[in-house]
Amino acid sequence: MSTRLPLFPLGTVLLPGLVLPLEIFEERYRTLVRELLAQPDDHSRHFGVVAIRRGREVGPAVPALHQIGCTAVLRRVQEHPDGRFSLLTVGGRRFRIDEVDQRGAPYLLGQVEYLPDEVGDAQAAQEAIGPVQRLMRTYAERLAATGTVQISLPDLPDDPIALSYVVAAAAVTDLSERQGLLAQADAAQRLRAERALLHREVGLLGRITTIGSSELRRVDPSPN
């Protein structure tokens, strides 16, 4: 069953369970926040975050959007004297956009269908948990060893759905790869894609750190 959902296009991908702070300064989105705050039920205080495929976050032009997005659930709202809002949101449910329009609202509205979060192939998902957890820990260690990026790695859950989203959120990837992970049909397929991604990244980071160590050994420590 489809429903209408306010849409917030962003140059990032929101995942279920991921915390997303937002600064709201455009008047159309200030209107959206005020309307959400007027809702009597906390469960209805959410909007859809969808990554921009082409275009800009701000301005009158409607950007080209990816089809799969995630709801942002309001957790904390601070209104500033100048009318801006600081929001703390968390990713909720995935959805697929069937149609985008702006009828009756200053912001974009989407006719969307919510997508179920399923394990998929239970055996494949279960077999992927251990390898993905090990690869993720190795990836975090090697990333830290480069001295460029250090990710805060939470406890990795054994539940395949939760693990698939934790890894998708923690891995340092570009928008298209993260969007691809969000769009996977189920946890088994998402974990399979993450296993391939992490295996690739661990190999690349291993070569980077090995080359860096080799270069350091070539440096003559003597000042003479």
UniProtKB/TrEMBL annotation:
Question: Which range is the signal sequence, renumbered to this chain?
Answer: none
Q: Which residues form the Lon N-terminal domain?
A: 5-202
Write down the superkingdom of origin. Answer: Bacteria
Q: Name the PANTHER family for this protein.
A: ATP-DEPENDENT PROTEASE LA (LON) DOMAIN PROTEIN
Protein name as annotated: LON peptidase substrate-binding domain-containing protein
| Organism of derivation | Frankia umida
Q: What is the lineage of its organism?
A: Bacteria, Bacillati, Actinomycetota, Actinomycetes, Frankiales
